[in-house]
Design brief:
alpha+beta, four-stranded parallel beta sheet, 17 helices, 22% strand, flat
Length: 684
């Protein structure tokens, strides 16, 4: 008989823990959840205070028998599942299945799988935290109710098999809303004037940018304005009016939270959220390293806290002093967001002495990349600021003003090791300006007017969508990855060149949900529910009360919508295109990539063809129909139906009468259509 039985979720975690516990301790894995709501029905008794109807997960019968047998042959049973709501709920389900009395439960958690953390946890077991468990139950039950009640509405109006989700539907809405912003965006023209100036003394040139007139900022929107200014300053002397010298400091980013790790792994490594979390899980649970066995390399990877332990802080200090020296060290603390749960530390390496390059051969390529990212980010967070010398120069040319800004990196500080990535911004560069004096003249070498157009907001990437969800209070660290993975798998959104855009199906489903369930599918409600779950975890709110308060009004809306749709049949839209095989008028259907035409005579006639959408506005060049098509990056563009036979009209923007052609559009669109094809040929 074993003295102790420790149950964790995964075999990898079990292997790592085993080596820390001597004697007759046995460590086994539950392989994740062992009980859940049934898939075949709602599984929530709405008539009996929303009691969940949990069942053993299909296929886990043999595992449950084994766990019961091991439990029977052990003196003490420790439930060591992950230290979060999900892990607490798994421990609660295990205690139920194994028949462990409430007062006899030995629940242990550790934020890192190290010898000290594991042994300390075993010494101080606790009871199941029912507040944590209930917070997980509330989320699970609420999401089940929303999904099972709303999905049939989609079946009636769109097609069978579709499903809706509380958080997923809000994520889709954000992406649809952004796409609508992009489609409605009207570019506005603006201009800049750049002056290339020469300092006679150093013989060095530098660039200055037009600022304004008589010391006041002036924006340029028309070529005529620019031509007038260029003409006036063509013969003017360029005199240095003012020089301001200063210092700029740059502070390192804090250690990773789940969301910032996902964002950086996407930016720097090209990882999807799903891949990031999968690789991080293996680093947390343990990797086999020669002469060390299975080692948990990072702390728990689901956290929204930037807090780190004093032990880890001291270890980072010793490493920085040893490798870089005193001037590179700064004892730095980071404020945790007020909405963070702060139950765990930030994500950091568990053993600072295990540098990524030392164990590269023991890791997969993906494990090495992510471990190095986590390791360097953590060490850099405890390093000195970077220091820049800055220079701001104001130059007068008659009544007009130009400005030049320069900066020079004086001390790299943390930047010797790690610099945080940006979604839509360039990394800061050194821009040097000669050693100038006030009132001196600089020679104009060239004036360069440049026309530009304002651009629409960028499409979301996985990284920027996670950032938006976090800022709006939607979801928690454990939900970001499954949320985005789910809406990709359901084909409500698609990904091209890292950018997320809604599919035709996603737009239709979003429109239907907004029209009928606007009180559920909105940012404010979803964020409010996250706060309710937090209150349940804190013990200030009862989980069934939260569900009851939601369910009453929600059920009324569902009944109303259901009644309105009672006699609605899914009618397929008939096109004006005859089937070229059987003559029937083809119908518009929705597939993975949006609309397509299919013969209604299916399965006898299986003819299908692309659906080409047109607009009412005629081609400004030849009067033909204008078609809306998509590039390989899924961007809309407008093209004449006669292109390329007799007309070459093509544009990013919807054509208007007497609209001038934009040759830049033509070049960009052609490049975006043709580039992938060239690459494919090269690959072949």
């Amino acid at each position: 008989m074993a003295d102790k039985l420790i149950i964790v979720e995964s075999p990898a975690k079990a292997n790592t823990i085993k080596k820390f516990l001597g004697g007759s301790t046995k460590v086994v894995a539950s392989m994740g959840h062992i009980r859940d709501l049934p898939k075949s029905k709602l599984g929530v008794d709405v008539e009996n205070n929303f009691e969940p109807e949990y069942i053993n997960i299909r296929g886990k019968g043999d595992l449950i028998k084994t766990l019961k047998k091991e439990a029977k042959n052990s003196k003490k049973i420790y439930l060591a599942t992950d230290p979060d709501r999900e892990g607490e709920a798994i421990a609660w389900h295990l205690s139920h299945i194994l028949g462990i009395e409430k007062d006899n439960v030995l629940r242990v958690t550790f934020n890192e799988i190290t010898k000290g953390a594991v042994q300390e946890a075993i010494k101080k077991p606790r009871k199941i935290d029912m507040n944590l468990t209930d917070a997980q139950q509330a989320r699970r039950v609420l999401d089940r109710i929303v999904g099972y009640k709303i999905s049939p509405v989609l079946w009636k109006k769109v097609r069978r098999g579709l499903s809706a989700g509380r958080v997923q539907s809000v994520a889709v809405k954000l992406i649809v809303d952004r796409e609508e912003e992009i489609e409605k965006f009207i570019p506005e023209e603006y201009w800049n004037i750049y002056a290339i100036l020469l300092d006679d003394k150093s013989k060095k040139t530098f660039e200055a940018r037009f600022f304004g007139k008589n010391g006041k900022k002036q924006e340029l929107h028309k070529k005529e304005e620019v031509d007038e200014i260029v003409q006036k300053i063509d013969k003017a002397k360029f005199i240095i009016d003012e020089i301001k010298k200063g210092t700029k400091k740059r502070t390192p980013a804090p250690p990773f939270t789940t969301s910032t790790m996902q964002q950086e792994a996407s930016r720097k490594l090209g990882f999807t959220l799903k891949k990031t979390m999968s690789v991080a899980q293996t680093l947390y649970e343990g990797v086999k390293i020669p002469e060390k066995g299975s080692v948990g390399l990072i702390t728990y990877m689901r956290t929204d806290s930037t807090r780190i332990s004093e032990v880890a802080r001291q270890a980072a200090k010793e490493e920085i002093l040893k490798i870089y020296g005193q001037e590179y060290y700064d004892n730095r603390y980071y404020k945790t967001n007020k909405d963070s749960q702060d139950a765990h530390e930030a994500i950091r390496p568990t053993y600072i002495e295990i540098q990524p390059d030392q164990i590269k051969s023991s890791l997969t390529n993906d494990q090495y990349k992510l471990y190095k990212l986590i390791y360097n980010r953590f060490i850099a967070s405890q390093m000195s600021q970077a220091m820049y010398d800055t220079l701001s120069v104001t130059i007068k040319a008659g009544e007009y003003t130009f400005k030049a800004n320069g900066q020079n990196l004086k001390f790299k500080g943390f930047m010797v090791l790690y610099v945080e990535g940006q979604d839509n911004e360039k990394e800061e560069e050194n821009t040097k300006i000669p050693d100038l004096k006030e009132k001196q003249e600089v020679k104009k070498q060239k004036l360069e007017p440049k026309q530009s157009f304002t651009e629409p907001p960028p499409r979301y990437t996985e990284a920027s969508l996670v950032k938006a969800l976090e800022e709006k209070g939607i979801g928690r660290p454990s939900t970001y990855s499954p949320t985005i993975t789910t809406i990709l798998e359901r084909r409500y959104i698609e990904k091209a060149q890292k950018q997320l855009s809604p599919t035709e199906l996603g737009k239709i489903v979003n429109k239907l949900l907004i029209e009928n369930f606007s009180n559920v599918v909105n940012v404010e409600f979803t964020a409010q529910m996250e706060n309710e779950f937090d209150k349940i975890e804190e013990g200030s709110q009862q989980w069934k009360t939260v569900i009851k308060d939601f369910y009453g009004p929600f059920e009324q809306v569902v009944k109303k919508v259901d009644k309105e749709l009672e006699h609605v049949e899914l009618v397929e839209e008939v096109s004006d295109v005859p089937c070229d095989k059987c003559g029937k008028m083809m119908v518009i259907k929705y597939g993975r990539y949006g609309k397509f035409l299919a013969c209604p005579g299916y399965p006898e006639c299986k003819n299908a063809k692309p659906y080409i959408e047109t607009i009412d506005e005629p081609c400004p060049k030849c009067g033909g129909k204008i078609q809306i098509r998509k590039t390989k990056k899924r961007r809309n563009y407008y093209i004449c139906e006669n292109n390329p036979q007799t007309c070459d009209y093509i544009s990013w923007n919807k054509p208007k009468a007497e609209q001038k052609e934009n040759n830049k559009d033509k070049e960009e669109i052609q490049k975006e259509i043709e580039t992938p094809k060239k690459k494919q040929k090269e690959n072949k």
